[in-house]
Structures are given as structure tokens and as C-alpha cells.
Amino acid sequence: STPDSVVTLLDYGAGNVRSIRNALRHLGFSIKDVQTPGDILNADRLIFPGVGAFAPAMDVLNKTGMAEALCTYIENDRPFLGICLGLQLLFESSEENGPVKGLGLIPGRIGRFDPSAGIRVPHIGWNALQVGKDSEILDDVGNRHVYFVHSYRAIPSNENKEWISSTCNYGESFISSIRRGNVHAVQFHPEKSGEVGLSVLRRFLQPKLRVTQKPMEGKASKLAKRVIACLDVRSNDKGDLVVTKGDQYDVREQSNENEVRNLGKPVDLAGQYYKDGADEISFLNITGFRDFPLGDLPMIQVLRYTSENVFVPLTVGGGIRDFTDASGRYYSSLEVAAEYFRSGADKISIGSDAVYAAEEFMKSGVKTGKSSLEQISRVYGNQAVVVSIDPRRVYVNHPDDVPYKVIRVTNPGPNGEEYAWYQCTVSGGREGRPIGAFELAKAVEELGAGEILLNCIDCDGQGKGFDTDLVKLISDSVGIPVIASSGAGTPQHFSEVFEKTNASAALAAGIFHRKEVPIQSVKEHLLEEGIEVRI
Ligand code: 1PR
Which residues pair with 394 in a beta bridge? Predict the structure, then answer.
């Protein structure tokens, strides 16, 4: 490779930088990893994708001498691109587990989003930028959406205003990018922002590209509602990994052979949905509750291959828990999650194990810090941890019939029951537990979940619409984003769930796999209904 095609990457080992590596390779660049502070000083162009929390990152940078090298490099106006925490660390300090001192190159303190402003924290999803003059690397963005995932942000002030190249609105105006000379940093994730994001990276890497183009026109103005494609993955009876889809969680064909329904190959389908405009892709290893996912290497391979060509967020779930294999080797849930992150996952999703953790927490009222949910959230941040709930509707005659949150349902039960509660299940819906979806959602938020994937067994695969009673109940009772899932059959079902509830995203599987409704039609319908989406 020629020097022109090499980019230096500062990866201090705190988490998943696989996505940025994949994006850089996709753009035809090879990567030189920083080993010593000298590598920073000698870089022709340096990318710093900050991951993890502020304090441990500063700790590593200080201890290794990288902090000083970074300051020198930036003060010398060398080509630099910081991403996410890589923007925040340039500021004076952060209140994340602090105050903690930052590199101090830009005036200002990093603070947490204030949920009392009526917003959900973390700020997850596709949002619009107000791009100022001469940001240069953002010229293709115009006001199209880019992908954010963070709970802390920098605020514009008189002291830092000459650094600011764009701001974004989320309950307040915060700094979404800075630029001074050759020094750039962005709060969003260009490596996860689809084609628009790739062009931001390209413009940073190849300054010649910047000269002629005019800023693009767009019409994004705020956080968009997300449309997520979900791939339920498992081995079929021949041992091949396939995308399957159940009816109320039963994935076997109603034929004599009774085989596992096969709707395609996971990597191919994910690539297709990326091209079709999915805002995010979820893989659920649906037999993970009984098969050990690290034994199931094909799933890890699926993630690796997918993340090489798909530049929107990837979530993977199934089997995230402590495990002892046949030879007696113990794996912690943290190791399982780490392997998923290393293979290209941006978020992991926990089902069964989160139910046990929530039950335990509700019984004792004590956070032990030992559950998979708490541990993964502590190490990777709550924005990386989704809890997947698999509830089943249980009708009752009277609100006092059960010790769980009961709601009045829109459609009465088979015996005219006007009320219902939503019982959580584990092991892919096979076992009901003594906890409701409402209680679970509140408990897992406390324990460190950053988002809730809300399924509904009754609606799964039925194509009759989301359970808006359930989605409303849960999205009104937590402050983290809620993804509505199960039951989508038409584009109208998506607008219905966004109009009737506070869901941040809607997920579907069957209609996309069976090619009944293209993702594009869902987006167009939502736009017509005046609901903001990423186009
Ligand atoms: O318990 O941590 O090992 O995680 C297991 C994960 O696998 C959970 O997230 C659980 O939801 C999922 N899962 C387990 N069994 C099944 C099954 O179908 N037999 N799938 C299953 C869950 C629900 C959604 C589905 C939507 C939309 N499937 O993923 O994609 O309902 O479908 P639709 O649009 O076709 O209606 P753990």
C-alpha cells in the first residue's frame, strides 16, 4: 500500500472498533495501529474512535503517554478525526463518573443529557445536523440523518464556538462536530451512518474530494423513528444456519416433515436489508438459551461477514449468560458478549437472563452488580445493552386478580375479559415467569439496560399489527428507547404504532423475509403520515 492509502488508528483496546476498521477497509484503506506515542506523531492521518467510558479512556491515554502525543499532534494541525468519545476527550473535562479531566484542547465540560427535558437517554438513532459553514467533511451530509448513540454531550458556548462545525438538537442543542484546520471530530458514528457516513470518512481521508462538491440538500430535522429488520437465526435439522420465522414463536412448518422454516441465508439477507434502507439489523440466535453461542461459531461468522459490508448498527442476541461447556470450562456472560462485540456487534441483546436478574432484583431490592446485564452495561455502557422481552398476554376479569400491572385492553379476551397483564417468558417463550413486562422493563432500566426490544408472543408472525396496548404501557413507563416488535403486516401498522405510542423504533421480520412489504414502502408511508424517518 502507498502512504496515501494508509490510515493510522488509535485503538486503546476498550471496545469494539471493528466497525470503523471495516469501513476503512471498505473504502480501500489499510490500517496502521498505534503502538507507541511515536506512531501518533508520525501519522499522516489519524483516526481516534473513542469507545467505552471517559475516565478509563483518559487513564490509558495518560499512562501510555498517548495523551501528550495526541495534544502535540493536534496542536500541530495534523489530519485528525475523533469519533464519539474521540470528540468528547478533546474537551476540558467530563462529568461521566467524574469530574474527570480531558485533553483540554477545547473549552467546555461534557455533561449528561437531561431526561427531564422530555427526552429518552441514551440518545440512540438517526438525527439531523445543523451544519455550519466550511465543515468540509460534512458537505455530503447536508441535512440527511446520521447515527448517534451516546448519553453524554458537549454544549456550545462562547468559548468553544469557533471550533463548532455542526450542532444537533435533542432536547437542547449540542455539539455534533468540531473542525479547526485539519482537526475534525464528530459525535455521531460515520461508520454506522450508511452511505452518508462513508462519504464523511472518504472526505476526511481524501481531501481532494472536498473541493468541488456543493452541500447536499436534505430534509431531516430531528431524531427519526427507526425501522429495524430482524433475523431470527438457528440451525435447521441439516445443521445449516438459516433465517427462520415463527408463528407465535413456533418456527416449524406445519407439514409432515415438520422442518425448521427456512427463509434464507443470514449474511445475504442482512446485506439486502442494508441496501433496502433498514436503519438497523438485529440477529437473534433463537436457540441460544440451550446451545452455547460460542460453540455456535457460525453465528460469530455471520456477524463478521455482515459487518464487513453493512454500515448500520448491528444487534445480536441469544445465549448471553454464564456458561460451563462439556469440558468444564467456564465462560462468563461478559466473555460471550465480548466475543459478539469483537465480531462486529454494536449492541447485544439479553432475553432470558435479564428476566432472572429482574426477578432477583425485585425480590431483594439489591443490585448485586453480578448479573450479565449489569456487568456488560458497566463495561460497554448501557447504550450497548438491549433487553429483549418475550411477553404473553394473559386476560383477567379484574385489575386486582394478579399482583402485576394490569391494563384495560382495546380488544376484550375470548370470554369478554376487559383486562390483561403481560407475562414474561424465558427460553424462547417456553416457560412463563412470575413477572410482568411492565415490572421487568422498569427493573432492567434500573439494572443498566439502554434499550428495550419489546416482542409479543400473541402477535408474533400474525401480521395483524403491533400490540399497541402493550407498547404504550412500556414506552410510557421507562425513559430508555423502546423498540416495538411482533405483528407487523402492512406499512399502516408502523404508522399506527408510532402514532399511538412513544416507541422509538419498530421492528419486523416476516413481512420483509417473505418480500410482502419492502422497507422502502414502510418508509414512504411513514413520511406521508408526517413521521420523520431516514431516507
Ligand atoms: O433468552 O437471551 O437466549 O435470547 C433469545 C432470543 O431469541 C430472545 O431475544 C427471544 O426473543 C428470541 N427468540 C427465542 N425463541 C424465538 C422463537 O421465535 N421461537 N424469537 C425467538 C423471537 C421474535 C422477534 C420477531 C418479531 C417480529 N422472535 O424476534 O422477529 O416477533 O416478527 P414478525 O414481524 O414476523 O411478527 P436469550
Answer: 421
